[in-house]
Specification:
alpha+beta
């Protein structure tokens, strides 16, 4: 967490506040947050923020000359506040903006990462270049290409869908929901997944993520919005963290697949 809907919610809220402002200076308190830190400050200071975009779970601050690519990982949060209104030991990067406000990056676990990419390398270099199709941004998805990638795998479909290089944006919560709606057992091996099942995965990924975006994400456990927004999709979860199947009323199973808690119905998902 956060997953695609939560990152999209952050993008939409921040976009209203910071586009058009200039990054006057950057204060880096925990350098490990910044990948390829050499010249990071030089590249982003005195640059205007002209837009915010998203690729999978990555938030991208589009500057007038270049981009800041940010991944929130488990608990990363952004705050947009008047300068001096917030400070604590978990704030690791501060972008001092031209209007007297700050964009603060807080991360209790310090797992989040940022990297600068110029416009020419944004899509061609790590991390964006490693991403698979985005179910929301990619309107025409090549079904057969996704099927070919999945059927080469000899690991559970749950782990495959968490691998951002095939379909990006899905995390633990939404993969459980997509597999339930697609009637696929999360333990099923990639090479045994049918073309029809892949089509169902893509369709359900899109519909579930779109609804979650509309509801401003899922507020559960470690994720709550840092921008005054509370998600509502947790009220629509069908299996993740639940005990009873909403279809057949059987007890849901909770297993660990690839080290991730996985909820599913053994009767409805085959």
């Amino acid at each position: 967490m956060p997953e695609l809907p939560e990152v999209e919610t952050v993008r939409r809220v921040l976009e209203k506040s910071i586009v058009g402002l200039t990054i006057a200076s950057v204060e880096i308190r925990y350098p490990n947050i910044i990948e390829e830190i050499d010249n990071f400050s030089k590249n982003v200071e005195n640059k205007k923020i002209i837009g915010l975009s998203r690729f999978g779970k990555y938030l991208v601050f589009n500057l007038e000359d270049g981009n800041i690519v940010s991944h929130l990982r488990m608990e990363g949060k952004y705050f947009y506040l008047e300068r001096g209104k917030l400070d604590n030991k978990h704030i690791h990067v501060i972008f001092h903006l031209s209007n007297g406000f700050d964009l603060l990056y807080q991360d209790v676990r310090k797992f989040g990462r940022m990297v600068y990419r110029n416009n020419e390398e944004l899509l061609s270099k790590h991390p964006i270049s490693n991403l698979g199709v985005d179910p929301i941004l990619t309107k025409e998805i090549d079904l057969n290409a996704i099927y070919d990638k999945i059927r080469r795998k000899t690991i559970p479909i749950k782990s495959i869908l968490l691998d951002q290089s095939i379909i990006c944006g899905l995390g633990n919560i939404y993969v459980d929901e997509v597999l339930f709606k697609s009637k696929i057992n999360p333990h099923k091996i990639g090479k045994d997944i049918s073309l029809d099942s892949v089509k169902s995965i893509i369709e359900n990924s899109r519909s579930i993520l779109l609804l979650a975006i509309e509801l401003k994400g899922t507020t559960i456990r470690s994720y709550t919005s840092s921008l005054g927004v509370t998600g509502g999709y947790q009220d629509y979860l069908l299996v993740h963290t639940k005990k009873e199947c909403p279809v057949c009323k059987a007890a849901l199973l909770k297993d660990s697949i690839g080290g991730r808690s996985t909820y599913y119905c053994q009767k409805c998902q085959v």
